[in-house]
Amino acid sequence: MKEDVKRVLRLEQPLKIREIAKRTGHDRSAVNAFLDRNRDVFTQNAAFEWSLAEEQELVVVFSDVEWLTVEQFETALCDIGSPLESDAGHIVFRLTSRLLIDALARLLAISNQVADKGKAVTIDLSSCKDKASYLSRIGFFDLLSPVITVFPERPQTSLAQIHRGGNSGVMELAEISLDVRNDDVPEQLMERFKEVAGEMHVTTMLTMIGELFDNVHDVDRNNSVTATSTTAHGKARPW
Q1: Cα 65–70–72 angle (5° rounding)?
Q2: Is residue 91 helix, strand or coil?
Q3: Structural domain boundaries of the chain?
Q4: What is the DSSP string of 143-157?
Q5: Which tens digit of pLDDT belongs to each residue from 180-216?
Q6: CA atoms within 13 A on the CB side of 135
Q7: Cα separation, 231 vs 117, whole angstroms
Q8: pLDDT tens, position by position, 138-173
Q9: 50 in Cβ contact with 17 (< 8 Å)
Q10: What is the topology classification, in CATH, of domain 2-52?
Q11: For the stretch 146-177, what's the b/e string if a residue is b when 16 or more beta carbons lie within 10 angstroms of its beta carbon?
C-alpha cells in the first residue's frame, strides 16, 4: 500500500483519504489506519488532507563530456550508489552531455525500474534542452514511464510516432515486450543490418538476433529496449 499511496500523492497532493482510497483501490479505513501509522512519511494539514513528507533526494550527475559512454554512465552510478537500493525517495538523473546509444538505453531502463519501485524520478535536461526533440524523434519519451518527470518539460508530441521508419540513418528505440511477443523487432534489426552490410552475413545475423530476442523472453522479467542506428560508414550514432 505504501508505494501505491506515494505514487498517487506524487501526481497530486494534498488529497483527502477518500480520494486516496479511490485512486489506489484500497479500502478507505485501511488507508486511514495506514496513513496514521506512517506520519514520518505522510503529513496531514488542517483540512485533513494528506501529502508526502519531504523526501531524501539522490542526484546522479554524469560526466560533462562530448559523448557519454556506457562505461562513464556506469561509473557515475557506482560512485553515488544504486538508485534502486538507495533510501532516497526521489532520484534525479542530471544530464550535461550527449549519450551514446547503449548509455541511453540504460538510462531509460534504470529510470523505469526506479519509478516502478514507487520512487519519484526526474530526468533533468536543463543543461542540454536542445536534445529533447531528438529524444522525442527516436522514441525515448514514448518508452519512458509517464510518471517520470522530465525537466524543463516533456514534449507534448511524439516525433517518433510521426516519422517512425522514415529515415534509416536515424536511431529509433523499440520495446521488446514480455506481454506481447512482437517479431517485427528482430525483422527491423535485420533490415538495418542489410542496409549496412549487404546480404553476405544475413543468415548468421538472423540466427544471432533471433537467439538474443528469444533469450529476452526466456529470462528477462522486465521489458527491454533495443535500437538500431547507422551512419553512412556503419558507425553508431550518439545523441
Answers
A1: 45
A2: strand
A3: 2-52, 57-228
A4: HS-TTSEEES---SS
A5: 777 777 777 777 777 777 788 878 887 888 887 777 7
A6: 25
A7: 37
A8: 899 999 999 899 988 888 899 888 987 777 677 788
A9: yes
A10: Arc Repressor Mutant, subunit A (1.10.10)
A11: eebebeeebeeeebbeeebeeeeebbbbbbbe
